[in-house]
Task: structure prediction
Amino acid sequence: FNDFRRGTSQLTYEELPKLKIDWVEIVGNHYESWPTPQRQAILFESPNQADEITYAREVLANFMPRAYRRPVSDEEVERKVKLFQHLSDQEDSFEATIISTLTAVLCSSHFLMHPEPAAEKRPLNDYELASRLSYFLWSSMPDDTLFELAANQQLRDPDVLLKQVQRMIKDPKAAGFSRNFASQWLD
Result:
């Protein structure tokens, strides 16, 4: 309750407290272009956009290998397409449905965790090596170069691996190594 409200106060208008606004600032998201490059990378232009299921399959087939940091099988993509179909009854639009489906991809253990080799001892495959290397040195996912080398099974070559480590250490993202590793392990 405002004791100074007009009509309930015995004060005259001149006696009421005044407010002087010196500055107003509005802060919001500013995008140089819309849709943003990040959104365009996920929801890219396709001739199949009119067919929601086909387009969702394309989006998932493009998104999941980056999220999982390895190639994905058609079966894995189809499981997420079925989820998309199931969610489409509950959501208002294609975009809301695909966001919910992509959220499920990002909640998967394939995204959240680095897979460990099976119980039997085996060397890491190239994708596992690329992930461990990039998260160790960059605190981030592998870049296109590492993915390409992993796809061509060249990353385990000692000369290639050495060149990639040298390249990664020179990258500004390598500051994450000293910041994260040193602070976590050396307190």
Q: What stands out?
A: Residues 9 and 127 are 74 Å apart (CA to CA). The mean pLDDT is 88. The chain has nine helices and no strands.
